[in-house]
Design a protein that fits this description.
alpha/beta, Rossmann fold, 42% helix
Length: 276
């Protein structure tokens, strides 16, 4: 594994690079830490050049100014990493908020993608107006306003299926706790307001796959993946496990991701879209 920092506008991004072969950029969600993907990246390094990074303002990256961040800025960071570390074009995987960033990247910088795999983007604004899940972001924001990052973090964890049933790596957990105020204070509003650019996704010149875990069928972060796939004609696949399966059982998550990444780079006919 090679680690380093990469300069972008207003920040130095910490990154880790493993393996050789076609490039695979992995974007993290809440907490924005490369450590979410350490074991999966190591598993895939025999077939891909895997790039993971701490998103701006998180963990070992700089750029925490206290000002609200926006998704275009996050997508520009990913675009710069692809240009600088992956020769200008890569397959992108994102989980949760990282999937939202990946969808934004696909709309704003399509030439930088060989494909996109968006795992459980919590894009609640695509759900029906009366869906209770539409209130998720506002609920957590209210708890942050009243009780700070610990209160918001507790509520957030309560909504993520499987949390508390397995142990996070100690160093990742410490960094995540240090990122909570940044998440809820500066990143949260952008994720809350996200709406996918359906036109751009429909016309994307690369494969797009939406997906969700088999144990997450009815959650606020799994159902939007089905709706986005339905609206855009993208493929939808079922991954094993839960939202953070790459931490709970990284080996089986890596196996599922390997199959999808191999398909994208094989340049075969895309699978027919299918819904759960």
């Amino acid at each position: 594994m090679i680690s380093g920092t990469f300069g972008v506008e207003g920040a130095e991004l910490y990154y880790e690079l493993r393996g050789s072969g076609p490039p695979l950029l992995m974007i993290s969600g809440a907490g924005g830490d490369a450590g979410y993907y350490t074991e999966v990246a190591a598993d895939l390094a025999d077939a891909f050049t895997v790039i993971t990074y701490d998103r701006r303002g998180n963990s070992r990256s700089t750029g925490r100014s206290g000002a609200p961040t926006d998704l275009a800025e996050q997508a520009a960071d990913a675009h710069a990493l692809v240009a600088g570390l992956a020769g200008g074009r890569a397959l992108v995987f994102g989980n949760s908020g990282g999937a939202i960033i990946g969808l934004t990247l696909a709309a704003l910088h399509p030439a930088s993608l060989a494909g996109l795999i968006a795992h459980e983007p919590p894009a609640v604004n695509v759900l029906p107006a009366d869906d209770p899940a539409r209130g998720f972001f506002a609920d957590v924001a209210d708890r942050y306003a009243r009780g700070g990052a610990p209160a918001a973090g507790r509520r957030f964890a309560e909504t993520v299926r499987g949390e508390g049933t397995y142990r996070w790596p100690d160093d990742l957990w410490r960094r995540f706790l240090g990122n909570q105020a940044h998440l809820f204070g500066t990143e949260w509003a952008a994720f809350a307001g996200f709406r996918p650019d359906e036109g751009a996704l429909k016309s994307a010149p690369f494969p797009i796959v939406l997906g969700a875990g088999a144990e997450d069928r009815d959650t606020y972060y799994a159902r939007p993946s089905v709706e986005i796939a339905r609206r855009t004609g993208a493929s939808w696949v079922e991954f094993p496990g839960i939202h953070m399966e790459f931490l709970r059982r990284p080996g089986r998550f890596a196996a599922a991701l390997r199959a999808l990444a191999t398909w994208v780079y094989a340049d075969d006919r895309p699978p027919e879209p299918r819904m759960p």
